[in-house]
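Input/output pair, single chain:
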Amino acid sequence: MISRTEARVLWFCATVALFYLLFPVVVVMTVSFSSSKFLDFPPPGYSLQWYRALLDEGWLSSYWITFQVGTLTALFSTLVGVPAAFALARYDFPFRRSFEALLLAAIIVPPIIKAISLYLFFAPIGLANTVLGLVLGHTVTGVPYVVINLLATLKGYDRDLERAAQAHGATPLQAIRTVTLPVLAPSVLVGAVFAFLQSAQELLVALFLLGTVEKPLAVRMWEGVRISLSPTIAAASGTLVVLALAALAVVALALRSRRRAPA
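Output:
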């Protein structure tokens, strides 16, 4: 049991670490409400003009592309990741460990390597500079999030629930669809949310696969930083912060539901 002094030291260290991590977010959110025409911190005054500018300067198309790509990425990642997680959790097949390593490599490999390789692969088959190409590129990184989250739940899942359903006349597939998947739904949702978030904030793959034709939000923000330092960039970043907070709230609710689910 730790002493009161040690507890105070731990609380102090945790507070300092939290402040260090959140300070950039606080700065961006504060500047996004600035009345100045430049990125000044602290701002001389406060205004909503830069959020209104997101509507006036054609940013809505970038938001729509980002939402479209992110939603399709989450859907494709779920459709591929759920069967993959079941296969890894329940079957012992050749090169199983290698397959798990490849899934982790999709997250670990530097984005620039993925961007170049995906462009070289997609360009000859006509998928470069298309929304579908970017969705497939982001799905490569999205699938591991679904698999990892679902595997953690499948390892502790009681398969007697499936066997009971089969004993009452359900086929194995019906047992999985009607019994197992509803229990695992929070884990699947968590993986899909993370797949969506990584798609919304990813830059290099989007720049190579779609950035020269249409502008996802991350690409447009990058180009805005290169051209000027308008607080509109901070306002766009603020909307991403709000999106991340909303996604984390969904994840927290899903994890809470998973803890209440039967094992």
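The chain has a mean pLDDT of 81. The domain at 48-260 is CATH 1.10.3720.10 (MetI-like fold).
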